[in-house]
Amino acid sequence: MAARITTQQKILNAAEALFARDGFEQTSLRQITHEAGVNLASVNYHFGSKKALIQAVIARYLSVFMPALEEQLNEAEAQKDLKTQALFERFKLPLAKLTQINKRGPDTFLRLLGFAYSEIQGHLRKYTQQEYGNVLQHLLQLLKRTNPHLDEQQMFWRLHFVLGSVVFAQVSGQALIEIAQAEFNQQIGAQDVIDQLIPFVSGGLENS
Amino acid sequence: MAARITTQQKILNAAEALFARDGFEQTSLRQITHEAGVNLASVNYHFGSKKALIQAVIARYLSVFMPALEEQLNEAEAQKDLKTQALFERFKLPLAKLTQINKRGPDTFLRLLGFAYSEIQGHLRKYTQQEYGNVLQHLLQLLKRTNPHLDEQQMFWRLHFVLGSVVFAQVSGQALIEIAQAEFNQQIGAQDVIDQLIPFVSGGLENS
DNA sequence: AATTAAATTAAACGCATGTTTAAATCATGC
DNA sequence: GCATGATTTAAACATGCGTTTAATTTAATT
Predict the structure, then answer these.
(1) What is the arithmetic mean of pLDDT over A59-85?
(2) What is the mean pLDDT of residues B169-174?
(3) Where's the DNA-binding part (chains A, B) (predicted)?
(4) Is residue B116 predicted with pLDDT exceeding 60?
(5) A60/A46 Cα distance (integer angstroms)
(6) Helices (H), strands (E): how many in chain A?
(7) Cα(B125)–Cα(B15) distance, integer angstroms
(8) Which of B164, B184, B206 is the closest to A168 by Cβ?
């Protein structure tokens, strides 16, 4: 059991690609298993259910992303004169690290996140909160530091608006990228979208 | 054919409520027809297909909202010293007008819009562009006026981020409102969310 | 090599969906 | 009041889904 790709991995790889492209509900197990070249029943054999497969796909990314983000937040913590935008820039490295899972890992992860938030409402939120709640708390604390003029309620809403922008940018991302490319005659990648996004969410969050 | 509610209207009313609550794909024709107290087959008889029903539901709102928005934009056009935030505030009145369709019309419309954008990817965008493209062009032109420091590409992306925030706020809105109410011990409505949203999108769009 | 456990396979199950059919009912104009 | 067209109805259709079953094949252990 060394370099050969197991059935489990084949399923995970095919599933994450299709989930990221079409969403969870729009992707059937028959599509996934066909793409992976494995039997339909093997999903339920190895993962138990489709829901569990979705969770496994997301968990694989979170397990890389979250620790890297935590490290970045610790560095930000020590930083003097921390600015909101600089804080958001800290997301770029953890995101880039996801290439170790997949060449298009960063794109994939953000799109998965987008679908997860818009499709399975409370489920992922609860899981993330439970597994990585401390990291998110840390982020909130730092944002309060860079934005002492916002009260609890403003911060609550704006954080969710930020999340909404990110999620939307990714879910509608591919379509928008294609429109943008046609309109501006240049190659555009997910990284460019992030670079456009950061000043937007920074400005939105900070605004008095 | 005077004051009595026709089958078509019964279907539209039931459909828009369920669509707004659960999304288009999550709502079955059987749910809709049961709620409306009409026969299952009457949807296909009166509208042709589920897709056409969705379009009819959205079109009913757009036909009220868009002309009202156009009027607001014309007023803004004449305004001296137009600010981005003031421009976004112009959305409130057209939105409020939707109560003439339904008491909870504004909420319903925004949630429908949210689901429309996240579920049926290109379809609605094309329809809106075709039917009300001139209004949206007008909005874009005014935004360029209030933000001359942004180039075409920045404006393109930020406009879509704004849209994303709005859409997300509404789709995740009810869940978030409940969390917020529990956390801050006060009654919160869709209008409050809009009030929180406007400074966010204004700040995000303007940021240099 | 024989035994046992793990993994894979083809097939079927049960269910829910949107849509279509064809008969029954209703309303309308002559 | 009857005939005609519009509407409503109950039932079935076709399809796709996640899941389960039971038999077969593969791999590991003794």
Answers:
(1) 95
(2) 72
(3) 28-47
(4) yes
(5) 15
(6) 11, 0
(7) 21
(8) B164
In a domain, A72, yes or no: yes
Mean pLDDT lowest among A166-170, A172-176, B25-29, B86-90: A172-176
pLDDT at B60: 93
User: Nearest by CB to B207, which of A118, A121, A199?
Assistant: A199
**Tokens found for residue B105:** 């019309």
Write the CB contacts of B131 (distance below 8 Å, at least 6 apart in sequence).
Answer: B62, B66
Q: Does B205 touch chain A (CB under 8 A)?
A: yes
Rounded distance in angstroms from the CA atom of residue B76 to the C1' atom of nucleotide C13: 62
Residue-number span of the structural domain to which A62 is assigned: 58-206
Positions 4-23 in B, CB within 7 angstroms of strand D: 6-7
Which contiguous run of DSSP H or E holds residue B129?
helix B121-146
Closest protein residue to D16 using CA and C1' atoms?
Answer: A28
Q: Over 80: is that where the pLDDT of A170 sits?
A: no
Q: What is the CATH number of the domain that holds A74?
A: 1.10.357.10
Using an 8 Å Cβ cutoff, are B98 and B109 in contact? yes
> Which two tokens mark A29?
């197990």
Confirm whether A21 is domain-assigned. no
Q: For residue B119, count other CB atoms closer than 10 A to its CB.
A: 21
Residue B62 near residue B106, CB atoms below 8 Å? no
CA gyration radius, chain A: 18
Q: Does B124 fall in a domain?
A: yes
Q: What mean pLDDT do residues B23-30 have?
A: 94
Sequence letter at residue A158: R
Q: What is the pLDDT of residue A111?
A: 86
What's the gap in Å between the CA of B202 and the closest CA on chain A? 7
B2, pLDDT greater than 80: no
Domain count, chain B: 1
**Per-residue pLDDT band at B122 (split at 50, 70, 90):** low
- Reading the block at residue A37, the tokens are 């070249």
Environment class of residue B83 by beta-carbon count within 10 Å: exposed (0-12), middle (13-18) or buried (19+)?
middle
Asked if the structure places residue B189 within a domain, the reply is: yes
Q: Is the dihedral of CA B116, B122, B123, B127 positive or negative?
A: positive
Contact A184/B154, CB-based, under 8 Å?
no
Could you tell me the distance in Å between the CA of residue A25 and the C1' of nucleotide C6?
Answer: 31
CA distance B176 to A164: 12
Mean pLDDT rounded to a whole number for chain A? 88
Is A118's CB within 8 Å of B171's CB? Answer: yes
